[in-house]
Amino acid sequence: MKRTIAPKPAAALLVLLLTALSGGGLAAAGTAGKGQAARTSKHAGQGITCVQCHGKAAKKSAVAMQQCLGCHGETKELAARTAQVKPTNPHENRHFGTEADCNRCHHEHMTSENLCLPCHKFNFKVP
Amino acid sequence: MSQEHFQEDKETDQYTKQVIENGLSRRSFLSRAAGGAAAAGLFGLSGLPAVAAGTAKTRDLEVATSSDGGATLSFLPKPKPIRDREIAETLTFDVVVVGAGASGVPAALSAAENGAKVAVIQKAPFALSQGNTGSGVDLATSEKAGVEALVARLIADSNHRCNPKLIRQWAYHSGEAVRWVIDRARQGGSPVVDQGSPVQRAILKVNGYGMGYVTSFFGPKPYTTGDGMRHLAKTAEKAGVRFFYLMPAVQLVQNKAGEVMGVIAKGSNGKYTKFLAKKGVILATGDYQNNKAMSDYFVPDVKHLGRKQLDKTGDGFALAYWAGGVIEPIGHTKMLHDFDAGPASMCDMPFLAVDRKGRRFVNETVEMSLLNNYLRDAENAGHYSQIFDSNYMAQAATWPGKLVPPEGLKNYMPDDPSPKKGVFESQVNTHVADTIEELARKIEADPATLAATVKRYNEVVASGKDSDFGKPADRLIPVVKAPFYGIHRRVRVSAICSGMLVDENHQALNAEGKPIKGLFLIGNLGGGFYGGVDYPLTVFGLSLGRCYTFGYLTGRHVAKL
C-alpha cells in the first residue's frame, strides 16, 4: 500500500506543524471543494483535498477504511505502534482484532469518539 | 429425538401456524409473483414500471412491510441485484456457512466431518462469540421422566409460546453435541472444561426426577466462548473447512423457483465473491441488537438499554426474509444480564436492590434476568445496585446462590488496588464504604435517597414483614453494620433470541409453511426455541448449548443431503 504521509507520529506532527505555519490548510480547503464539510476537516489543515479521500464522483460517499490505509499504512503496523497504550491497545482488541474500522472512532468532519466507552473504562483520547 | 411422545403429523403445528399468520413475511408479494430476482422492481414503492435488474435507483428501493401491510420497514431493504461483472470470483462448495459464531463454527466442522466441502464466510476478522457456559442434558445420568419434566419447564419458561419440538430436540441431543464441542475445541488448543452437573444445582431434580448435565465452560474471563470458537475454528480448518474473514454476506443466490443456490459476499476491497453451495447455505449470523430501527420495531422494551455486542445488524434476517423466510411475530425474546460488575453467583441473591437513584423498586426475589423489565426507562437504563452490610456472609448463608467473602469481593472492586483475576477489569463495579452516603456516591446513587431507602428497609426488616413489596421474611436482612457493600449492576442486551421460522432440520420455511430448498437458519437467527418476554435462566448456559446443538445437527444434516 502506498503512503503519502509519514507513518511515525513525530514526523506526522512535523508535517502538521509545517502546514499550519505555512497557512496552507485553509487555502487548500477553500479551493478543494464547495461543500461546507471541508471547513471542519482536520486533513484539510494538512493540505489534503476533498477529492483525495472522497474521489471525483458527483455524489460524495463515505470514505471506506481502505482509503485510510492507503495513506496511514497497514493496520497491523498501526497496532504495533500503539501496543504500549494503557490500559489496552485500542488498535488490537477482542472485538475486531487489528481490523476495527477507523471511521468508528476517528471522525474527519466532527468530533472523534471513543467506541469502547459505553462498555469499558478505557479513557482514550481519540485524535 | 424422542419420537413416541408426539405425532409427526402432516398438519402444521400451532407454533408454525401462529408465526405464519402473524410473523413478517412476503406472503402477499409472493402470491402475486413467482419470486426470484427477475421480479425485482415490479412492486417498487414508487409505482414505477418494472426496470431491468441492476438499474433501479436508490429511492426506488423495495422495503418490507409489516404483517398487516400497513407499515413499510426501512430496516429490511431488498438487496440490490449484483451484476455478474461485479463478481470477482465464483467458488463452489457443498455447504456454505455464513457467520463464524457459536452455531456457525460447529455447523461447519460438523458438516466437514460428515464429508462435505465447507466454506465459512464471516463479517468480522475472526470467529466471534460471547459468554462462557453451554449446556446439554447427559442422557446417561438422567431419568427419562426428568428430561420430559425439564422440557415442560422450558416450555413454561417460554410462556408456552415456543415450538416444543425444538426444545425436545435440544433435550435429547445436547449432551452429545456439547461433549463434541468440548472435545473438538480442545483439539484446537482450548482449555475448555466440562463442569458437568454441579453448576446446574437448581435443576438436578425436576419435578422430583433426577437429571445430569454436560456443561462446557470456556472461562474464566477474559477467556470466553469467543476464544473457544477461534480454537474450534482451528480444528475446523484442519478438517478442511475454508474460512473467509472480513467478508459480509450481502445477498443470497436463488434460482427462478426460489431455491437457494449460494451466497454473495463482499470483500474489503469492494469486490464480490459468489459462493455456490451444492447442498445448502446455513445462515448463522446472530441477532440484530445493533440495528436500531429493527430492534425498536421487534423489541421496543430495550430501546433505552445498552448493548453488549457490536455489529449484530440482523444481516441474516434481511437475507432470509427476501429469500421468502418468515420472521417471528413482534415481541421478540430478549436476554439482558450483567455478570461482570460483581460475582455472577450472587446476581440472583435477594439483597436490598435499589434503582439508579437509590430507591427500592422491587421484591428482590425477582431474578436479575428479569429485572430489565423494571429498569427500561431512559433514566435507569438498566442500572441498579445490590446493597448489603458486613454481616452478609452469616445472614444470607442459607439463600440460594453462592456468597463470595469480603476478600473475594475485592476482585470486583475498581477502587481496590489488588490484582484482578478471572474478570473483565474494565467492567467490575463493586464497592465498599463506611457510611451509606459514601456508598451511594460510589454506586452513583443519590446519597439522601439511598439513606432514606436503607432506613425504611431496616424498619421493614425489623417488623418481620415486607409491607412494601411482600418479600418473604427469610429474605429480609438489615443493612446496619459498616462497612456497607454495593454492587452496581447494569443489565445490557446480551442477545435477542427470537428469529425466523424453521422446521426440525432447521430449514427455513416460507409463508406457506413449505421448506425453502437450500436455506438453513441456526443460532439466534433460528426461531421457535423461545417465546417468552425474557430468556430463561433455568438451565445455566441454555443459549450456547442450543447454538452448539443445532449447529452440530444442522451441519451433519446438510452434509448428508
TrEMBL record, chain A:
It is found in: Cell envelope. The keyword Iron applies. Its main location: other. Pfam families: Cytochrom_c3_2 (PF14537). Residues 43-121 form the Tetrahaem cytochrome domain. It comes from the Bacteria. Keywords: Electron transport, Heme, Iron, Metal-binding, Signal, Transport. Transmembrane segments: none annotated. SUPFAM superfamilies: Multiheme cytochromes (SSF48695). Its cofactor is heme c. InterPro entries: Multihaem_cyt_sf, Tetrahaem_cytochrome. Residues 1-27 form the signal peptide. This is Tetrahaem cytochrome domain-containing protein. It comes from Geothrix oryzae. The lineage of its organism: Bacteria, Pseudomonadati, Acidobacteriota, Holophagae, Holophagales.
From TrEMBL, chain B:
Its cofactor is FAD. Keywords: FAD, Flavoprotein, Oxidoreductase. Pfam families: FAD_binding_2. It comes from the Bacteria. Residues 94-532 form the FAD-dependent oxidoreductase 2 FAD-binding domain. This is Fumarate reductase. The lineage of its organism: Bacteria, Pseudomonadati, Acidobacteriota, Holophagae, Holophagales.
